[in-house]
Amino acid sequence: MGTSPKVELSIPIIPDMELAATQTSEVVARHMGLGQDKSDEIKMALIEACINAFEHSKTEEGQVEINFTIEDNTLVIKVTDQGVGFDENTVKIPKIEQKIKSDHKRGWGLQLIKELMDTVEFESTDEGTTVTMTKKK
Amino acid sequence: MSDFQVSVKEVDDVVVIATDGYLNNIGGEKISDICDKHMEKGVNKFLINLEKTSVVNSIGVSILIEIIEKLQDTKGKLAYCKLAPIVEKTFNIMGLTKYSTIYKDEEAGLSDLSA
Fold first, then answer.
1. What is the pLDDT of residue A126?
2. Which of A25, A56, A63, B83 is spaced 20 to 30 A from A17 at the CA atom?
3. ipTM > 0.85?
4. Contact B85 A111 (CB under 8 A)
5. Which of chain A's residues have a Cβ under 8 Å away from the Cβ of B62?
6. Could you give the CA distance from residue A128 to residue B70 in angstroms, rounded to a whole number?
7. Predicted confidence (pLDDT) per residue in A97-133, tens digit
8. How confident is the model over B3-12, as a mean pLDDT?
9. What is the CATH number of domain A6-136?
10. Smallest Cα distance from B22 to chain A, Å
11. How many CB atoms are located within 10 Å of the residue B40 CB?
């Protein structure tokens, strides 16, 4: 195949719409011949990336763009929002020992994405954020 | 879009909550409400059967951490069974297994919790 196969998806910021993205990732993973475990890890990371994008957007308007590209044996997923951006360096690594006595029990998304995917990169400005994550076959 | 269902039964002194659907914030709150109502009656052992929940998100799972915190006050226990591999992995990453137990199935969970 001469070019890298791509799937582009645009989802509205509506509760549970992240599941529309995971349906697409399942199809792409199946096409690549990825096993169930890897497909499920991609789905979980994608759910977290979409939820973060929804929350960064701080508005119920607009869309979150999701691009899937198969580059040789690697699936590259980009999740882009048009939100207010964030500084990855200000996000603390969550620890349950601290969360359990804290009023803020959330904040696990980035950690889960990092643990479940092979690579994760963030590009964020005050006009939006793109999370790029990859999974090898 | 969410269609999270639960069924609840009591076996001896353990409340078994069987879930069906996406464990998101709504699902987590449903489980939390059930636990709260039973805790008010003095019950403090809960076994969540997640056989029909293959998809979770961190917000839903964070609510389970709230339940763990409440149960610490009464030396109660929260446990789970029939987890899909990705759900078990998520629980491990988030550290839930430091404060709660995963069992293979309901029988194993009830046997241990009722002891």
1. 87
2. B83
3. yes
4. no
5. 99, 105-106, 108
6. 38
7. 999 888 888 889 999 999 999 999 999 998 899 999 9
8. 96
9. 3.30.565.10
10. 9
11. 8
